[in-house]
Design brief:
single chain; 227 residues; alpha/beta; Rossmann fold; DNA polymerase, domain 1; 6-stranded parallel beta sheet; two-stranded antiparallel ribbon; 11 helices; 46% helix; globular; HAD_sf; S-2-haloacid_dehalogenase; (S)-2-haloacid dehalogenase activity
Amino acid sequence: MIEALIFDVFGTCVDWRNSVAREVAAVLPEVDAFAFADAWRGEYDPAMARVRAGNRGYIPLDDLHLENLHIVADRFGVELADPEALNRAWDKLDPWPDVVVGLNEIRRSRIVAPCSNGSIALITRMARNAGLPWDCVLGADLAHDYKPKPEVYRAACAALRLPPAKVMMVAAHNSDLRAARAQGLATGFVLRPQEHGAQQNTDLLAEDDWDIVAADFHELAARVAGQ
């Protein structure tokens, strides 16, 4: 039986795009807030890729976000009076409407924890803001590396003192689940067709025979309860 579910956070649990755009609009009303948010997020994977490739040591995502903010601000030709304050937009991401209730439903019988590329500090602040009821916070800080590196999934299982077969990785991203399955974890896919806005063209369906495929966290909770 699955004893713990670990979750991707950005996109799966929280609506980063609308939340970040809201904060950008408040600070930089002269720019297209959604274009700025998309560009900022667009620097996310390239920044982590340099760490994953060993081209630089591990740097918490908080700091990568700040570096990326300066890159994007230069690209948009804007001056930031307080970059660190705007960087805290990532602490204030709103959960998708089904997430808090769904997590509480799952938590009645299973451990729930994030397995995120966010730092422990970032994910903790986000959880307090969004009311996410995690039992603990896992992820990149434990492994000093970023998903989809195998070490991140293995470190999460080790921290819970559970074999991978008793842990389910839940994500709205097929690539995350492929990497988790390769390490022996069970997999749960939850559809988030609006993560990247109305024009999203990725992760619109389950691309493999994941152990659970659910429309939202309510369905996920019901499927988990039935196991």
